[in-house]
Amino acid sequence: MSFLIKRMTVIGVGLMGGSMALGLRERDLVGEIIGVDRRSALDAALELGVIDHAHTQAEEGVKGSSLVVVATPVSAIAPTVKSIAAHLEPDALVIDMGSVKGSIVKQCEAWMPDGVNFVGSHPIAGREHSGVRAAYGDLFDGSRTILTPSDSVSSAAVERAKQIWEAVGSSVEIMDAQYHDRVLAATSHLPHLMAYNVVNTLSDLEDDIRAEVFRYAASGFRDFTRIASSDPVMWRDICIENRDAILDILDRFKNDLEKLSKRVAEGDMDGLYGIFARSRATRARVLEENKILRGE
Ligand SMILES: NC(=O)c1ccc[n+]([C@@H]2O[C@H](COP(=O)([O-])OP(=O)(O)OC[C@H]3O[C@@H](n4cnc5c(N)ncnc54)[C@H](O)[C@@H]3O)[C@@H](O)[C@H]2O)c1
Ligand SMILES: O=C(O)C(=O)C[C@]1(C(=O)O)C=C[C@@H](O)C=C1
């Protein structure tokens, strides 16, 4: 059988890395999959059939692979890529999955030996669970993936990365890495920070009322805070790596919250109606335009 990828290595076999491995495997697109991670994650990945072979050392694990997928938390991506650079096959392609791209992509591209390419990738797909047991092969189906190569990356490598993402069901768009970080700070990072904060605001209430507050939390609370179940390591790393863009959007949010607070304090009927009506209309329009948000 001729595979799209004969042998690939996934470094960080969790939700995202495991889903990429399964997505390619279930579509018969990959021959052999090597996993690199902690021993316990590797044992689970072997047991689930997500990988064929396991290594705890990335330098060893990338040998013989034409594709290397780095799916570690954001803070480990650049150090990992630096450590494998000298051990990659001459024509290998390295892609990552990090939720922040700017400085990671710049560093990783620069570390690539001649003939080897790093193509920064961010699948806009995921969920609040982590680890390989949460991985599934259709995770990327119907999603968008943003590639953030600089001009120095070969167009053949970008085309190859695009082919891999499309093979697992994602449609690909190209974006400048810094611009990506500003867009994602608004669309993904701000909502996660809000969700975490709302849960903490409620859990800091006085004992007597707190129990009642959580007892009566219903679908509104559940929908709004689903993403507060996400992995704290992932979100710590995103905040550290995308600090400036996150601070910028948080400032805007704080301003808007101040305005809302003022309208509530003043009992401003028209002002409050205006805020809620505009938001509802915007969401309806975005839902209509965006089939990912409609869940299609
Ligand atoms: N979860 C999401 O919804 C989502 C969506 C898009 C992108 N991402 C990005 O994908 C990446 C992976 O996220 P995830 O949700 O799969 O996390 P995860 O916790 O499920 O998996 C990460 C894996 O990396 C391993 N790991 C950590 N440091 C390592 C190292 N130095 N070397 C090898 N393995 C290491 C962990 O043991 C774990 O198994 C992150 O960079 C995240 O920002 C996540
Ligand atoms: O659906 C979820 O649970 C997610 O959080 C996925 C989500 C997001 O949409 O914000 C989270 C972080 C990623 O970098 C990309 C996707």
From TrEMBL:
| GO biological process terms, semicolon-separated | tyrosine biosynthetic process
- What GO MF annotations does this protein's record show? NAD+ binding; prephenate dehydrogenase (NAD+) activity; prephenate dehydrogenase (NADP+) activity
Sorted alphabetically, the keyword list is: Amino-acid biosynthesis, Aromatic amino acid biosynthesis, NAD, Oxidoreductase, Tyrosine biosynthesis
Q: Where is the Prephenate/arogenate dehydrogenase domain?
A: 6-294
InterPro entries registered for this protein in UniProt? 6-PGluconate_DH-like_C_sf, NAD(P)-bd_dom_sf, PDH_C, PDH_N, Preph/Arog_dehydrog, Prephen_DH
The answer, when asked if Oxidoreductase is one of the entry's keywords, is yes
Task: Give the reactions, separated by semicolons, that this protein catalyses.
Answer: prephenate + NAD(+) = 3-(4-hydroxyphenyl)pyruvate + CO2 + NADH
| Catalytic activity, EC | 1.3.1.12
- SUPFAM superfamilies cross-referenced by the UniProt entry: 6-phosphogluconate dehydrogenase C-terminal domain-like (SSF48179), NAD(P)-binding Rossmann-fold domains (SSF51735)
Give, as in the UniProt entry, the pathway in which the protein acts: Amino-acid biosynthesis; L-tyrosine biosynthesis; (4-hydroxyphenyl)pyruvate from prephenate (NAD(+) route): step 1/1
**Protein family membership:** Belongs to the prephenate/arogenate dehydrogenase family.
Specify the protein name.
prephenate dehydrogenase
Question: What is this organism's lineage?
Answer: Bacteria, Pseudomonadati, Pseudomonadota, Magnetococcia, Magnetococcales
